[in-house]
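Course assignment 3, question 2. Fill in each field.
Student: A.L.
Task: Predict the tertiary structure for the chain below.
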Amino acid sequence: MARKHKKRSMVQKLDSKSTIRSGLITALDVGTTKIACFIARPLENGAAEVIGVGHQVSQGIKNGNIVDMVAVEDSIRATVEAAEQMAGENVRDVVLCLSGSVPKSKLISFDVAVSGHEISDLDLKRALDPTWLYSQQDDNRDIIHSLPVTYSIDGNSGIKDPRGMFGEKLGVNMHIITASSGALRNITACVNRCHLDVGAQVVGSYAAGLSCLVEDEIEMGVICIDMGGGTTDISVFFDGEVVYTDSVPLGGNHVTNDIARGLSTPLAYAERMKTLYGSAIPSASDDQEIIKVPLVGELDDGENQIPRSMLVGIIRPRIEEIYELVREKLEPTGFEKAGARRVVLTGGGSQLTGVRELATEMMDKQVRLGKPNYVKGLAESVSGAAFSAPAGIIQFMVNERKAMLLASSNNMEIPSGKVARIKKWLGENI
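Answer field:
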């Protein structure tokens, strides 16, 4: 039964409230190629188990941007409804994955006077919530994440937790991730029209990294490349924290379009050819392997026969261009070195044959393919690299819940600011 456009009844609202109280996490990933919704229940051991999944082909989104709000609204409604039916629950709040909002990353440093006394939770709260930080943002940018990377005391850097230490000045290195206000308002409006509230937002590249990276990679340094349909998102993790995020406006759909135009074949068949026969790396047998290609607008007899090498010759330049743009984003920042010699590829575009080998060749790094590692209960059909972002959102919320539980057990004050809505959700569930 489809989600109704009209407002829910009082019974439904009560059901929704009880669902919130039960601690369910609903992750919504609205991408260019697909829309996915995961409903998960936190477990006592600090993990989470997915109990409901919905996903379908995305409508109304092009290159990560909304072009038809009605189509996006219908797609979201159908996807969430499918997840609700599988979970046997109604949901009200969702955690939204932001992938097409052109995220921008900035590292800032500032000092807070502590006057020589022991640094307390109150000092930390004051340091992590500088009001001037928000006032300095451009009108067309919204802060999504403000993440402390490291602390320093009187110039001594590299401190992970300054509480209990003494000094005159507490320094903070903060990683700020912002998103386009217009894109954020558009996607939020689509979600709200489905009678859902956006409880929090998580940048897609950050979520994908949380999902598919292992602890040692996050500590030693790694570059995570999430290859989606309309965009390729980048995140760099180092010393246990995400230190850089960005995005390039190319993805798997651009490869499909290149095939369709280059071979004069319908888009649907171009996608099929890419999946079945496509590769970013040539092989010795490509010239001997012949592929039948139906032509656009032709009847039954209208088809060409091409060698597989011709298809590879169309795919490889576009994948090379994506990696070149990724390098151009990273080189001026210096974060390519912070990522050490390791790259993890994820996202639906990473499943194309040969993209790993080509990344190794072009980026001169060790490359592996990543998929969701930590979330339990995922069926085989939704456990691949294409679903790293929604799984990462679940992991993000689980991590926040752990932090809240630890803080409450230690009678610590929780810093306010960027995740106020997350804190509200967590406060209702623990």
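Instructor remarks: Confidence is low (pLDDT under 50) at residues 1-21, 414-422. The two ends are 32 Å apart (CA to CA).
Grade: pending
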